[in-house]
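FORM 7B: Structural annotation worksheet

SECTION A. Query
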Amino acid sequence: MTADINITCTPKDWPLTIICNGEVYDEEEPPLTIYDAHFWIYLGVYVALVMVAGLMAGLTMGLLSLDKNSLKVLKEGGKPSERRHAAKIIPIVENHHLLLVTLLLCNAGAVEAMPIFLDKISNPIIAIVVSVTAVLVFGEVIPQAICSRYGLAIGAFFAPMVRLLIFLTFIISWPLSKLLDCLLGEDHGTFFRRAELRALVDIHAEEARENEEPLNVDEVLIIQGALQMRDKTAGSALTPFDKVFMLSIDGNMDKETMDMVIDAGHSRVPVYEGEKTNIVGLLLVKNLIKLDPVAATPIRSILQENPRYLPDVREDTPLFDLLNEFQQGKCHMCAVKMVDSAGEAGDLLGVITLEDVIEELIQEEIMDESDISADVNRRVNLARARASRQLSRASPRGAHPRRSLSGGSDYGATLTVNTEPDDSESAGLIGNESPIAGY
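SECTION B. Predicted structure
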């Protein structure tokens, strides 16, 4: 018994459609074997596509995780290799969305093309298993892990290739990137608030990476003090007027008064008339050296010969503005006045000096010669606190390192580090008590 078999072909002779006794059969192309030359061609193309997909995924992770401002910091202050890498990457990362769309387009194209070539060399089940494994491991996990760790160097190496891809896909990627710019806004990099910068400084001090010098205590204090200065005002750093050493304008500069001035240990002395809240002038102690105590020169005449006035500032004056005022050299002391309900300057609250502002900046107390006799317990506690912060210094057994800032407010400060036994820690601090800080 015989049956008629009709065979019809498509215009390109593939695939063949076989009709046998009315039944339609589509002839399938058998997978290529390793003995076929085309097998290795398809396999090579597939491996290349996996590598391209992995490279695009890695570059997406590596380049897009690099912040523009961080790259600018590396370009200006990084190591020589980091400066070179950052200079190559910054022009690419500037257009954040264009880079994103370009890399995703190339990655999607490579991933979508993989099944076309894998189907030629394996059956569908094996193709699915191999494709999923290859894309997951070699196209996502490993490239992204490597590029997230070495993103700067890898991004700089492939920067020319990325430029070429941007050019080749520009017709598609540019409109999409502009659409993202309109919807999401352009990327301007990461900017830290002051509180975040202070936390960042703390992290750098506590968790410095290996082979890098951590920030020491003084650097942390000064940086944080500068960041906090914006929120501090004259009212928070002043010395109350009832604790300020002052002289009456009706008094005389006799021996007793000069002894009081010397014991106070200040370089400037406010002068009041009537009540202490009415400050009318300022005496520079260095100008008193030419006076004869026996003559008992009236303080009023001293002010008339060397007139100096104490500027007034409001209690809400920022310390940075006050520091700028002091830098002009007109005066290193100001009278701080209360702000009333109408917003006008009112009664005197106290005085503030350049030394007070600097102490707020460095967040440490500046001790001069006159302060040795002031408040023994406070000095001992301060010395112990500073000694505990000497992280980079080794102390001898049974001794405590003490750091102090010595020097007058007019002539700056000198940093000294001394090591004294426990039993002498407070012995050298005993003297006449003075309730006020130096100015």
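SECTION C. Observations
The radius of gyration is 39 Å. Residues 37-64 form the longest helix (28 residues).

SECTION D. Sign-off
Analyst initials: ____
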